[in-house]
Design a protein that fits this description.
CATH superfamily of one domain: Winged helix-like DNA-binding domain superfamily/Winged helix DNA-binding domain
Helix content: 40-55%
Distance between the termini: 49 Å
Radius of gyration: 15 Å
Largest sheet: 2 strands, antiparallel
Shape: globular
Number of helices: 4
CATH architecture of one domain: Orthogonal Bundle
Length: 99
């Protein structure tokens, strides 16, 4: 039955190179999502610290909202998470896809 158990790391490396644990993640009551906090949550999921479902439940996010954060990080890194620059990075990505 060992293969059915979920083994999770105690910590993962965050977007700024720091160690992240479940306790060091943004609190569940977070309502102001700055770039660093979004990137930490994405890093936690990518590193296996939490699952997507756990993150969505913990932070009251929709799956689409979290997926958009992951896409932004994959495409443009942390700067892609800036709300004021979403259109810029979206246009840039669409141009890259054409060529």
């Amino acid at each position: 039955m060992i293969e059915n158990q979920k083994i999770r790391p105690a910590q993962v490396i965050g977007p700024l190179g720091e160690s992240l644990t479940v306790d060091s993640l943004p609190p569940p009551s977070t309502t102001r999502w700055v770039v660093r906090r979004k990137a930490e949550v994405v890093a936690a999921v990518n590193g296996g610290l939490l699952t997507v479902d756990e993150v969505c439940d913990r932070y009251s996010l929709t799956l689409e909202e979290f997926a958009s954060w992951q896409r932004a990080v994959d495409r443009s890194g942390m700067p892609g998470l800036r709300v004021t620059r979403i259109q810029h990075y979206k246009t840039l990505y669409e141009r890259q896809q054409r060529y």
